[in-house]
Structure formats: structure tokens, C-alpha cells
């Protein structure tokens, strides 16, 4: 999530100079969905970690 916050900070700085329709498209397509995608991936990774830990315990 820190990387997403850093990216958003950089994007806000960039967006101050890049204000055309392509910038809006870029934000809509790439920047806006990113936090939800990272949260989703993080949740899945946590689930996988739990499964892998259980497998390790079961194999011992």
C-alpha cells in the first residue's frame, strides 16, 4: 500500500502538468483501479500464506 500511496503522490504532481483527456483516461484506466486491485491481491496473498503454512505444518 505504501507503493500505491507513493504512486498517487507522484501522479498528483504529474497531473498538475498533464491535464488533457489522455491524462484523464490514464487516471481512469490505471490509477483509479489500483488501490482496489492491490487490496484484492493482498487479501489473496494472505489467504495463500495461510494455506502454505497449513501445508507446512501438515507435512512436519
Overview of the molecule:
The protein is rod-shaped, with a radius of gyration of 18 Å. It is an all-alpha fold and 60 residues long. It has 3 helices and no strands. The mean pLDDT is 94. It has a domain at 36-60. It has helices at 2-15, 21-31, 34-59.
Q: What descriptors fit this protein?
A:
single chain; 60 residues; mainly alpha; 3 helices
List the total number of helices.
3
Instruction: Calculate the mean pLDDT score and round it.
Output: 94
Uncertain runs: none
Percent helix range: over 70%
Radius of gyration: 18 Å
How much of the sequence is in beta strands? under 5%
- Distance between the terminal alpha carbons, to the nearest Å? 34 Å
The count of DSSP E runs of length 2 or more, i.e. the number of strands, is: 0
Helix/strand/pairing class, anyone? mainly alpha
Order of helices and strands: HHH
Reported for the largest beta sheet, the result is:
none
Q: What is the global morphology?
A: rod-shaped
Topology:
Elements: H1 2-15, H2 21-31, H3 34-59
Explain briefly what this protein structure is.
By secondary structure, the chain is mostly helical. It has helices at residues 2-15, 21-31, 34-59.
Amino acid at each position: 500500500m505504501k507503493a500505491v500511496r507513493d504512486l498517487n503522490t507522484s501522479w498528483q504532481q504529474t497531473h498538475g502538468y498533464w491535464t488533457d483527456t489522455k491524462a484523464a483516461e490514464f487516471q481512469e484506466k490505471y490509477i483509479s483501479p489500483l488501490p482496489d486491485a492491490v487490496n484484492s491481491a493482498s487479501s489473496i496473498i494472505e489467504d495463500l500464506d495461510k494455506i502454505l503454512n497449513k501445508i507446512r505444518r501438515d507435512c512436519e
